[in-house]
């Protein structure tokens, strides 16, 4: 789809303009399922089909017409049809983490056989580019609507994004997330959700949804299967402080700013209570405090765990009652269908509680336009198969892969390699000719594949290849043969790392090193090569590669995550200088000894007396292989604080003087909204590209306290922006900061407080002090 078309559709939705888009011609077999067909004479008598009424009225009318059995049939992901009312079956479960996945509500068995496969989220996050994240969400949203219009989607609710914090480096699903920082995860959620749902980048709370996004997994979920403990039985013991400033903020941003229409509650318990049965979480916090007005779905079969596995409820009927009264709406599974009616008959569940859930469910389906008649004659009705795997979307996938790749080492400026002087190239490693590995998990059939080997072959005709190992597990390695190949080439590129056999859903890692004999293969080849080698790592979670970091025979290291369908091209362009790398790590890379820390320990903050080092860059006090935000470039960038106003913040306002008296801190809630708004200030940073190459550069702004204590982070990211600079060019980047948000911390009760003293704005090696005084 051309850019002006994308912008037009987005404008239609953002402004609420009543435009009728002409539908494409489809055969009857490819018709999308919808209700309220105008050709049906009964339609006119149904208030739920009357589009002039408010959606809440329409949904209430529909619910009033249903029998108890029909109501219960709608409480599971595969909602049954209701033929007497002309309502088709609906599948709530579809996936679109970084492209459309081919299962559940989606079938690639018609006109559309593939979809654009963007990089796995952890690599996309490394771009620190919110607008890129929005454009990816927007492209995926367009392709999902095209699937529906082609009759290949049984629903338009997609259970993405995954915005759990990547707390522990062993987590198999960390690859699906935007990383370890709650600000990044929250901003990713907002950008992706707005794009997928058809909102503006700046947000505008659309009423008509292009597709429905669902933020998951709520909450404190980041363990799948480790050391005999699985996600189904795990009870995450989390402090109010850690909930407030680490685990909850991404979900709050997703709901309050992104206006997501879906939320998924996780398998695990938090402090003894199953997430899906926690009234305080789902109703008081999510709906009450954050104003969520969408639907809440359980993770799949999570409802059955409440009684069958976790023993939280005394019977199946009690389990059903506990989740629905807590605020959940739909069961991914069949437990509500099996035990819902008996729960009502036993008076453990009221029918009005079922009606409450149905109101949320039918409201979302109506916002998707599925009860407005023929969707081909409605907004988004003209999105056809030609807009799946379009040139624009495939180019965007390549752009995303380029911008996420992180250069971690580049001794003596080995990279970029000269296109003219590189006459022969050896490409070695089990991931060198990988295709499926590029996609990561939760992927569907891509438009195309470009492996690293294929990408590099497009630059050097005389390219030799050897896998070195049969697979990434590498129980044995053909080291002698790989060394022989390496000796023949001008330059050697090793493509190593992990794949889904090593890290995935239901499979956490037990160590942080490269599998099998990969390290031995790397060091042997590097020692034999004519020149220092280039090491490329494909992996989602971090790996301890200290051996390579300090090895002079390994000149350059690139982390490429799981870079998607165009990953091989992006890697080759970076190696040969057609792209200047600018990605920065969204997670801390820990040493291999970190595995001594139990994965089940949810504490973020360190505990020095016991030797517990804490987690993530915000709190971790131990040694690091690479730090959050690390990333080199072929250029060099410098910063200066150009303008910051003010450099002193006074808290002794008349309304708050009594709060700060005889205290080193003040509660943000006591300061009030008016004070917080009035105290917002601007920080302008001058950025200069001092290198010889143009480049796109993420500017990361942190805050830290001069004397951190009381559980404060060592530093905290408060904003990030991208700037493109030609060689020698400078530009100013402005951040608008709110002291109540950015200069505050969570106390042990989970409340935001501001402390007196010196707070430092930090960008690169520059610091700017701001004093908070009473």
Helix content: 25-40%
Q: Taking strands numbered 1, 2, ... along the chain, how are they ordered across the largest sheet?
A: 12-17-16-15-13-14
* Derived structural class: alpha/beta
> How is the main sheet built?
6 strands, mixed
Q: Based on DSSP secondary structure assignment, what is the total number of beta strands?
A: 28
Beta-strand percent range: 15-25%
**Radius of gyration, Cα only, in angstroms?**
27 Å
The DSSP helix count reads 24
Low-confidence stretches: 1-29, 654-662
- Through-space gap between termini: 56 Å
Average pLDDT number: 94
Shape: globular
Domain Fibronectin type III-like: 697-767
Family: Belongs to the glycosyl hydrolase 3 family.
Pfam families: Fn3-like (PF14310), Glyco_hydro_3 (PF00933), Glyco_hydro_3_C (PF01915)
Signal peptide: 1-29
If you had to describe this structure to a student in words, what would you say it looks like?
The protein has 774 residues and is α/β, with parallel strands linked by helices. A 6-stranded mixed beta sheet has the order 12-17-16-15-13-14. Strands 19-28-27-22-23 form a 5-stranded mixed beta sheet, with no helix packed on it. It starts with a helix and ends with a strand. The chain is built from 24 helices and 28 strands. Helix 15 links the parallel strand 13 and strand 14 (463-466). The model is unreliable at 1-29 and 654-662 (pLDDT under 50). It is globular, with a radius of gyration of 27 Å.
